[in-house]
Amino acid sequence: MEQTQALSALAALAHETRLQIVRLLVPCGQDGLSAGEIGARVDCSASRLSFHLSALDQAGLITARRDGRRVIYAAKRRQIGGLIHYLLNDCCAGDQTVSACCRDQTGGACHTASDAALNDS
Amino acid sequence: MEQTQALSALAALAHETRLQIVRLLVPCGQDGLSAGEIGARVDCSASRLSFHLSALDQAGLITARRDGRRVIYAAKRRQIGGLIHYLLNDCCAGDQTVSACCRDQTGGACHTASDAALNDS
DNA sequence: TCAATAGTTCAACGATTCATGAGTAGTTGA
DNA sequence: TCAACTACTCATGAATCGTTGAACTATTGA
Fold first, then answer.
1. Residue B24 lies in a domain
2. Given this model, what pLDDT does residue B103 score?
3. Distance from residue B48's CA to nucleotide C30's C1', rounded to whole Å
4. Is there a domain that residue B37 lies in?
5. Is A103 domain-assigned?
6. Long-range pairs for B98-101 at CB < 8 Å and ≥24 separation?
7. How far apart are CA B105 and CA A8, in angstroms?
8. Reduced to 3 states, what is the DSSP secondary structure of residue A66?
């Protein structure tokens, strides 16, 4: 993933409704959900929903396909994984503390030897 | 990490200059860099830099401490790791495809059996 | 062909964010 | 105390984003 792509993906996710849409779509996999179903669960107007869906689409985080009179949206899980990979490896250069906290957040503690004594770095 | 916190962290990262600052600070760990050093490497005006640094600070992604006449900024790596953990586990519910693509992006291929045949979901 | 259904697009408005430059505040050394 | 240095705050104008409602397009079935 390139920086431009990552930036637009981050901007797309930095919105409550859109994050909620992604949260809904990921477990549905390729089957996805229709715009109407998403709208019913997300509770926003049709035009607003359409706006957010196209923002996610343009950011490359979801795909759209028509099925009769419905439009089905599905999460592009590989792209989402790619974004997380980018944050972890490109932006944080595979930093051990970041990786450790990414893997394990139970209790908010980090478990790498070198960071056991750190306050909140 | 809570949703509100994650949203502000995502919004903070969704900007080229701020992402660049994080990229600079993570490898420096607790030592961090002074505002002046960051400004020299990031190439933006002092006031703009200050604005971006305070945005990152408010989002909980960096810390500031004074050292003489300098102000030293350091990445809060645990928070950054927490954000990535949130994306992976809360938003994507630990989805296997997302996790696999997050771990391995070589060639852009995913390696879970169930997703080998998927196009780009 | 026509009505109903499912979604999208558009213009308009308000709110927020961004970049700039001027001015201000804290720290140091003479 | 004062000048130099380092960094922040504030006011401004421009640009972007988010929301709304009305109008539009595409599809289906009678």
1. yes
2. 83
3. 33
4. yes
5. no
6. B98/A26, B98/A77, B98/A78, B98/A80, B98/A81, B98/A84, B99/A81, B100/A81, B101/A77, B101/A78, B101/A80, B101/A81, B101/A82, B101/A84, B101/A85
7. 19
8. strand
Contact A63 B23 (CB under 8 A): no
Do the domain assignments include residue A9?
yes
CATH number, residue A24: 1.10.10.10
pTM of the complete model? 0.88
Domains in chain B, number:
1
Q: What is the pLDDT of residues A28-40, one digit of tens each?
A: 999 999 999 999 9
Instruction: For residue A52, give every residue at least 6 positions away whose Cβ sits within 8 Å of its Cβ, in sequence order, or none.
Output: A15, A17, A18, A21, A44
Asked if residues B45 and B57 have their Cβ atoms less than 8 Å apart, the reply is no
pLDDT tens-place string over residues A107-117: 444 444 344 33
- Which bases of strand D have any atom within 7 Å of the beta carbon of a protein residue? 4-11, 17-23, 26-28
Provide the pLDDT for residue B114.
43
Say whether B22 and A91 touch across the interface (CB within 8 A).
yes
Q: What range does the domain containing B38 cover? A: 3-78
B118 to A30: CB separation less than 8 angstroms, yes or no = yes
